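Homework-ish question, so no full write-ups if that breaks the rules, but can someone show me the predicted structure for this set?
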Amino acid sequence: MSHYQQTDRRALYAVLDQALVAHLSIVRHGCPMALPVGFARDGDSILIHGSTGSAFFRDVAEGQEFCVNVTHLDGIMYARSLFDSSMRYRAAVIYGRASVVSAQKKEAALLKLAEHLMPQRQREIRPMTQKELAATMVLRIPLETASVKDNRASSPDEPNDDHSVWAGTLPLHVVAGEPETSSATQSGVAPPESVLTMKARFTTQ
Amino acid sequence: MSHYQQTDRRALYAVLDQALVAHLSIVRHGCPMALPVGFARDGDSILIHGSTGSAFFRDVAEGQEFCVNVTHLDGIMYARSLFDSSMRYRAAVIYGRASVVSAQKKEAALLKLAEHLMPQRQREIRPMTQKELAATMVLRIPLETASVKDNRASSPDEPNDDHSVWAGTLPLHVVAGEPETSSATQSGVAPPESVLTMKARFTTQ
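A: Not a homework solution, just the prediction itself:
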């Protein structure tokens, strides 16, 4: 994947801003351990949140080194050999140490996170309680050591190929289906603006 | 995420068989390092491949402990509080050490991998060369220490909620777009069976 490394900050931000989930890896007792986590970019850092009861998050909070991966699988590239075939993807990797967001700044950070993961939703629902805030840890991860790779411009063609054999790419996209209303929602209550906005974002072009 | 842990082997296999990409984490020089990799399940193990020139893969091949994550983001669960909101997902985590597939078994393992990542494609293209085989390393990772979580049956409803507020889930799916023919493919050559089969697999229900 080393051919496509980019250091462009905007490219990094775009890969992060279009994703909802990252994989966060740490070293625990000498062994690698990784989990998927929801995240949001906030300026030149990313925010993640977890339970204060989670040993994994406490380890991250203690300033352990971590690795964060954000990957978009954009398609399957069919070359004319298995060797040259590959995936179309965009991938960001971030290395560093996290810091705990202070109690004073925690609510603002959680609202920032929520606005990325569920835009506009906070206007439709009750505010967070002090108990909920206390049970949640928010970590800030600087984007100091970060790289992004994007091979969308690459071609599966090789000069010596037999060009009578089809080569190309099957693009893959994430799309939203119809909102599923929960059974305890009063009848007649329609999916709100927040859900319709997110649905529109995940629509094929 | 601990509420949804399952030990059912079939559930683990289903999560793996429906995915193309995993995140593979190792410890390098005391720090976590993770990369996205294409993979396939082969019985009670998974196969990954990489370049023999990759320091990352050589470290994995040397029997270092690793963590493999395979995550499907299936939707966004809108509860009536930010605290209870979450993602709908299926996620597998595998811990262990990899072994290098021997030279004698390498080609069969690569064809197994290819059949998962690009079903039927190997019939349409030239065979691998000895040089290509020599440049590729295949690793087998046993599914001995593996767990799978699936929260698709969970609801965003809480007993004390105001049920006049909408709650529910926005489902997310991966879908394929129209195949993009590479510029060096002779005109008139249509996307082959392999690509059409994969396109049909990634179609919304």
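Now go work out the reasoning yourself. Hint: Residues 2-159+167-172 of chain B form a domain with the Pnp Oxidase; Chain A fold (CATH 2.30.110.10).
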